[in-house]
């Protein structure tokens, strides 16, 4: 608490009361004296208040108190509102909180918050007002600020306008110490846009909509963009290790395994309240920190129990709602904390207590449930079996915190949550064990989120353990990979099976029950990569020293459909099979036309480089690059076309295809013509140079009195010499005569 009249200093005392020299209280004063600078840390100055009279003042204080108590604890008697000589308030107030942390929270969360329609609060620490406003810091005379001349900023979405008009996508490559951004030229050499040495220290990362390229350094994170690739934002989080964006690029989370240490001279972006924290949530637009968090401690083992193993590090530790309005954090086994943005205050001031909670995940899109008109964001969570209580999967609505659907499960070893990209379905992959716990199988619990009552469909025909699951983006089909052998690290990876599922046909717009389409056995596959546009999928074997297969499938093959699949909404066809030795990563481009695979030097040093395929699996390009580390396609923002416009394009796709094919043919032929023209131009340049040199030499010979054609002069001189010697010409003839010829036979 701040000092009051109960804590008077020595100079405030009346010397007549007692003789100071008689009693030495220096040790007591040193121990108990309140330091004024520390005490004032609990005070804030609230500015921007309406002007009120003495009669209106109590009403305003009560109204203001409601706002102030959302971030801490204060009372009416701890709010001092100065009044002017005219009997009206001076439009600001001093407020005392119970501790400095609450005062700091008030500055962070209440500054620029509207009090009403006409007034916006400005909240600052009292110590900051003193620090920046003391004598000598502010000029006595007003000096108008210098307004910088307007400079037009670069368009951060300029990459959407391909100068070639071909709708190419960009990608970034990190190889050696160099980072470069390129246009994809299919079979031809990629067109370099920018290439810089030591652009990052650890890795690069695109923002979710492709606006920024992130570089990571010991001093913090930098965002780059625009046609000239200038630095757009900077976030000074020392020794940052990982970065995560909110879906709409409004906010950024940075994490460092080293707690933040604020030096005595201060930090350019962080404050004393951030000292010792590991996570910082930033506002990208302002580059300012909103709030920082410390690493969660591992729960200690109970007395008599074996020490608990350190849990696997969760990333992202903070998960975002689809519209960036909420961010949530899991406190394993206890609760989920949901924060409102941009104020970063805890929703309803309390965490959502869920005993035993293991994991949760937000719906990737704002879902409109049947019969629900209110705004909501959904997230799902699951809890294991605790004592006699079954495991449970729940679907919760935010901000109401209402559980709109729950499901009890038994004999559960583990569960994984898989949302479909539009939030229409939630698949809970449940690994169940037998009573003896010696065998394990998987069931899929599929929540139909958009249907009334959120019905749950169970796929229990899977006899093996599912090791991978993936929904079709913007679709209702999925692929799984299963194995009969126990999951874990083995010298030789187990054989796997790849199974395809799709709904059966139903009347109208309804989606039928999910049915098994096909299973491919005796595979080595362990990863599934759907095209972002759906329909096409790559089933791959990655990070495997024995196999590196890439299988390209089409689930809407236009050929003849087998009789057994007539009632299903898919027609499966293997289009191609490729092999990329040592492949570690696979990624589709945002248009769904190309697939990049690469072998990263971060994982091994054998045949590092990349391959580029089209969606059919035809290899377009292969390049081996020493110390190749990373490839990332640049994401695109969502289309601006309406659903009707997109449907019209699909209907007329054949017409557009003919136009594009003609343009491609013209481009290829024009490329050939360009080569011929370049050669002709070089030949003409050589002829022109030769003629110029010949003329220059002729002029020099004329100046020095030499013949214009020395060769002709030499021939003429030689002919004249021969003409003078013609009278004394001697002709010699050589004749050969045979004198004797003998033939001898040797036996």
TrEMBL record:
Cellular localisation: Cytoplasm
Family indicated by similarity: Belongs to the eIF-3 subunit B family.
Native organism: Sordaria brevicollis
GO BP terms in the entry: formation of cytoplasmic translation initiation complex
Complexes and interactors: Component of the eukaryotic translation initiation factor 3 (eIF-3) complex.
Keyword RNA-binding attributed: yes
Lineage: Eukaryota, Fungi, Dikarya, Ascomycota, Pezizomycotina
GO MF entries: RNA binding; translation initiation factor activity; translation initiation factor binding
Gene: PRT1
Name of the molecule in the record: Eukaryotic translation initiation factor 3 subunit B
Coiled-coil segments: none
